[in-house]
Design a protein that fits this description.
- The chain is mainly alpha-helical and about 300 residues long.
- Helices cover about 55% and strands about 0% of the residues.
- The protein folds into 4 domains: about 60 residues; about 60 residues; about 100 residues, no CATH class; about 60 residues, Tex RuvX-like domain-like (DNA polymerase, domain 1), CATH 1.10.150.310.
- The longest helix is centred in the N-terminal third of the chain and has 59 residues.
- It is elongated.
Length: about 300
């Protein structure tokens, strides 16, 4: 019994040493489990926070660039030939676009920003935004020059004819009837087809008007040559939407599907000439389609 007790019998110095050792062990354990992890976590959090902030800033920058690229670019345009799609691009409502199209369907034109607002009833803020892009024909912007020229002609009939001999893209249905062979219906048909095209780009497009004889079309072009061509914003076939391609007057729904199926197969058109490789593509329309499409 005494021998057993001797193994557990310590003096004061020994007991103090043991107590100090126990406290030291406990302290080290506490530091290991609580202090060190918190320090490393803070360092890690600071590091991660900086990386996250930088990464988020880069993402935000890329998003901003993408948004800017998605915004439709506005090019100068004649408001008289504003189409549904272009009207939507510049921020007009359906009602405002319809008012303009109704105005044009009656053979009337837009000759000033003020008149554009009167017809469409767009807000002052929207007019201020899009007015810098308005492009009117020379006979509108230089009325004084045209007036002086007409006043110098030898007779009233000559003055009338010299004024009308201006631009196929600005002639009214009433003015077109001066050409022999063009009556009320045919003149309206020419104006409606011109509106669908957003203006004649090349003379050959006039011959596409249904019911217009070649001889009459020739006379029309003599009296009304294409002076001010519409500014066409060509559609990139590699990035265009289905609706954008379908909006081209020479491309129907079936051809649009074929174009997009081919684009899916090749990933990207290297040139617009590749359209000719599409099975069933109307080769006779290629030159017309090339007026509105491009491959970048």
């Amino acid at each position: 019994m005494n021998r057993f007790k001797s193994h557990f019998w310590y003096n004061n110095s020994q007991r103090n040493g043991i107590l100090f050792l126990v406290l030291l062990i406990i302290t080290l354990q506490l530091i290991y489990f609580f202090v060190i992890p918190s320090i490393s976590t803070e360092d890690s959090t600071d590091l991660n926070s900086n990386e996250i902030i930088e990464f988020q800033q880069e993402i935000d920058s890329l998003k901003q660039i993408a948004l800017e690229n998605k915004k439709p670019k506005i090019y100068p345009f004649n408001p008289s030939f504003l189409s549904d799609y272009r009207g939507y691009q510049v921020g007009m409502s359906t009602e405002e676009i319809d008012r303009l199209l109704k105005h044009r369907a009656n053979g009337n034109y837009i000759n000033s920003a003020k008149q554009f607002q009167q017809v469409t009833q767009v807000s002052d803020s929207l007019l201020k935004t899009i007015e810098p892009y308005f492009k009117f024909p020379d006979w509108v912007t230089n009325k004084k020059q045209y007036k002086n020229y007409n006043d110098n002609q030898t007779s009233p009939q000559t003055r009338e004819e010299s004024f009308i001999t201006k631009d196929l893209n600005s002639a009214t249905a009433e003015e077109l009837k001066i050409v022999k062979g063009i009556g009320e219906k045919l003149s309206q048909r020419i104006v409606k087809y011109r509106n669908k095209l957003d203006g004649f780009i090349i003379s050959d497009q006039l011959y596409e008007v249904w019911g217009l004889d070649k001889e009459v079309a020739d006379k029309t072009l003599e009296r009304f040559p294409i002076i001010n061509k519409p500014i066409v914003e060509k559609i990139n076939v590699n990035t265009a939407t289905f609706k954008e391609v379908l909006s081209i007057i020479y491309i129907d729904y079936e051809l649009t599907k074929k174009i997009f199926n081919y684009r899916d197969e090749v990933a990207e058109f290297q040139s617009l000439e590749e359209l000719k490789k599409i099975d069933g593509f109307p080769l006779e329309k290629f030159d017309r389609i090339a007026l509105y499409l491009e491959a970048k």
